[in-house]
From TrEMBL, chains A, B:
This is Glycerol operon regulatory protein. The lineage of its organism: Bacteria, Bacillati, Actinomycetota, Actinomycetes, Kitasatosporales. The keyword Signal does not apply. GO terms for molecular function: DNA binding; DNA-binding transcription factor activity. Residues 2-61 form the HTH iclR-type domain. The keyword Transcription applies. GO terms for biological process: glycerol metabolic process; negative regulation of DNA-templated transcription. PROSITE patterns: HTH_ICLR (PS51077), ICLR_ED (PS51078). It comes from the Bacteria. It comes from Streptomyces cellostaticus. Keywords: Activator, DNA-binding, Glycerol metabolism, Transcription, Transcription regulation. Residues 62-245 form the IclR-ED domain. InterPro entries: GAF-like_dom_sf, HTH_MetabolicPath_Reg, Tscrpt_reg_IclR_C, Tscrpt_reg_IclR_N, WH-like_DNA-bd_sf, WH_DNA-bd_sf. SMART domains: HTH_ICLR (SM00346). May be an activator protein for the gylABX operon.
DNA sequence: CTGGTGCGTTGCACCTACTGCAACGTCCAT
DNA sequence: ATGGACGTTGCAGTAGGTGCAACGCACCAG
């Protein structure tokens, strides 16, 4: 829409491929050297472009700083909430959003079931880390040594007969969850309650949050709940897309 | 230097603080809304800016992608080499550059000693990971569980009486290296050879490479070699600065 | 030492394309 | 209904971006 800015921004992906000198930049932009020089200078003043000792240009540190700062100020909750509400409107059950923090998994958002029988949970409360579906997803994404170290440190309380009994079983389950890309908790925390969960991923593919749908047996059976899996995954993917700023729309010029 | 581009780029740090709507952007730029709109649209087409569901703008995923791609295409060796040469010119000893890769530490560059007595080493060859100064620096930066897991997996060959004897001693040494920010190998690999090493860090502060100066006892004593530490650290810091694209120069406008 | 080539840089005249304005559409709250 | 807030569009004027040509400089070969 704005030619000058358009050209300037086209320099960035070009430099991402590797350092380039003024002539190369001008050629690939299809503009005169003097024009390219001015654009590069402007980019340089903003720190997006760095001039190395051999005079060639490359991307600068500011870019990294910006990306990082934006990351930190990104509030998953804010982004996810409308999606959670929509899912709740569709299926009626309790919807949770959870993140991993400091060896704990915490619920950070929740949309209450519209059925009279509700499950108990509280935003901000650590979840039962060894059995909750969301916890499995979040921990399954850790690098292997950390996963192992954490699994060893945990207690494995037997909430029910189906609770994860020990570190070995837990690690096996995490491996499976990691591969299939979703998780369940079928009566592992409270006999009568089942969950299905799916991961929310950031731009780099790492799991930044997990969301789940939970319902007691008296409302739907585990099998019925499992039929919601595609819907849950679709919702999680939608949140991932928005969180990582993937623009789902029209053509971006080469 | 270019007004339009200048304005467009000023939007980025502004959005890094958090999402903003058109009016806010226009105000803080001091331009008309229609102008801000056009700039935002251009940024949007390049994926640097994303429009969330509430119509507000925030930084887009492309920014991360660019930063990552630039990272990958950054060649430390290319950047470091002139610095290594300069250091070699100053002190005359062998200078090495090493990186950590797949449970190994590899020399990726080397400037030969200008003294007649040289130490043996080859670019591309894995270093003695349990004793080499550069290896200590690279491994000391790993997260604790990974460091531990790796230390357990390693063999601890007794090259000399001063070689690191076992995992416990190694981990203790890594902890110390981590805190002091430099490392040595005093006859741990070959009786008569000593090294001092310093880390090269990326924009995010993580250690991406390590460099060392090595010399045999017959040329300089260990104590004499240690007096070079400040020089080695200064060189490593210079490489870090250039690698991470920190522009050491003049004022960038607010 | 000299002439040549390749690079980044500068000043300038032309005219593109960026700007601000004002008007319109839409959505919400009153 | 009515007012306000906000994003969006078309348009006329001119700010400022563009390409050209010339310059300075470093490097290399004759």
């Amino acid at each position: 829409m704005s030619q000058t800015v358009d050209r300037a921004l086209s320099i960035l992906p070009l430099l991402a491929e590797g350092p380039a000198d003024l002539g190369q930049v001008a050629d690939r932009l299809g503009v005169h050297k003097s024009t390219a020089l001015r654009l590069l200078r402007t980019l340089h003043e903003h720190g997006l472009v760095y001039r190395q000792s051999d005079q060639r240009y490359r991307l600068g540190a500011r870019l990294f700083a910006l990306a990082q700062e934006a990351m930190e100020n990104l509030d998953i909750r804010e982004i996810a909430h409308p999606h959670l509400v929509r899912l709740n409107e569709q299926c009626g059950h309790t919807v949770h959003l959870a993140v991993h923090e400091e060896n704990e998994v915490l619920y950070i958002d929740k949309v209450e079931s519209r059925y009279p029988v509700r499950m108990y949970s509280r935003i901000g409360k650590p979840v039962a880390i060894t059995v909750a579906a969301v916890a499995k997803l979040l921990l399954a994404d850790l690098p292997e040594p950390e996963r192992r170290a954490l699994a060893d440190k945990l207690d494995y309380p037997l909430y029910t007969a189906r609770s994860t009994p020990n570190a070995a079983a837990f690690l096996r389950e995490l491996e499976q969850v990691r591969e299939q890309g979703w998780a369940t908790d079928l009566g592992g925390h409270e006999e009568s309650i089942n969950c299905v969960a799916a991961p929310v991923r950031g731009a780099d593919g790492r799991v930044v949050a997990a969301m789940s749908v939970s319902a007691p047996n008296v409302v739907v059976t585990a099998d019925e709940l499992l039929t919601l899996l595609p819907q849950v995954r679709r919702t999680a993917d939608a949140i991932s897309g928005e969180y990582s700023g993937r623009t789902p729309v029209k053509g971006t010029p080469a």
